Amino acid sequence: METISPIAVPASVTDPSSFGFAPCEGGICAAEGIKAAGVHSGFRADPNRRDLALVAADQTCVCAATFTQNRFCAAPVQVSRERAAKGHARAVILNSGNANASTGDPGLKNALASAAIVAKVLGCDEQDVLVASTGVIGVQMPMTPYEVGVPAAVEALAHSAEAAHHAARAVMTTDTVPKEVSMAGPVACGADGTEVTVHVGGFVKGSGMIMPNMATMLCVLATDAPLTPAAAQKALSAAVYQTFNKVTVDSDTSTNDTCILLATGAAGGEAIGEDSPAFATIAAAIRCACENLARKIAADGEGATKLVTVDVVGAASSKDADTVARSIANSPLVKTAIFGHDANWGRVAGAAGKCGVEFDQYGVDIDFLGVPVLRAGLPLPMDEDDMLRRFEEPEVTIAVDLGVGSASARIWTCDLTHDYVTINGDYRT
Length: 429
Hints:
This protein folds into two domains: about 280 residues, L-amino peptidase D-ALA esterase/amidase, CATH 3.60.70; about 120 residues, ArgJ beta chain, C-terminal domain (Ubiquitin-like (UB roll)). The chain has eleven helices and 15 strands. The protein is globular. The chain is of the alpha+beta class. Strands 1, 2, 3, 4, 5, 6, 7, 8 and 9 form a nine-stranded mixed beta sheet that branches. It has a six-stranded mixed beta sheet with strand order 13-12-11-14-10-15.
């Protein structure tokens, strides 16, 4: 019997060894010159639940950021977007439990006031403090948790893996696990080829209301690489586009999405600009960190039991590939079939065909769980028992070759379960 080869898809960039780095301990505090803390301040009723995170550099440093494109953007987004545009910052204060979104002028004043409290206690310029919030929309932000929590967070600031973990936990809402990443590797930072050890680390929260641009997420990344502001922004923007903007749980976009990168330069070496030979390595590390975190968001989608990776190749353009992949990833029929361990490739084909992208159905190939199930638009024999065994793996892969070009796209999503309805039905109650 002729062996049918699986569809060739682009390689993953979750392995830092591909550019000479390796995983390390520390989370966001892996980067030299970065301290973090996560405390309970009163946003949450449970005194054992951390709800206020602080990330602070030892001194004002380079920063870059990307934000939600939702027109109902929250007050913290408005404040941080303006301040991050300067290209430098000292600290980021983040809370969970209240989004401070759709709160008008009082909400904006409260966001500014929260930054002022941090600046006073930390001893820095208010303009160097960025703000991020997540939680219920349309509720005014109380100031007492900041007045109580910020001094406690500043006192708890530490350059340790434990402190980084506490910060990651403090921003969780419907997340079931904290999401962190950190890596380190040698980078040549200088005309003479002198190498320094560079670290990249960070955390993200995100579980539902996930659809670019970006996902419902707060993310803080840090590196001790000596990036220039322009280089930091270029690396972060590219990474976010290729990772966080390729995640969908439920096709909804949040009001509060924020991703901030701090670059302390504490690793030493000459400044790394966009044209520096070292830039490609740092950019790869930032993208790798973001891809690891993006996959964790999808895997922890509200009620999810499976991480789902959808690859579309052979498209006429990247836009077409993204449109088809997103149509498949957002299809309730596809997502529920995966929850039911049903390798229903017909739902994949239907989702691909409904989105307006032109292709010949008899030129399309589909793989499900790494198994060829459709070639040239016609089904292949499928061993249902083998498919059920493959569904025992934590990740489900779907690959589609449209057969009309060379462009590709990858989207991460998750299955759609009974628990998703329960979680979102009970969100405010």
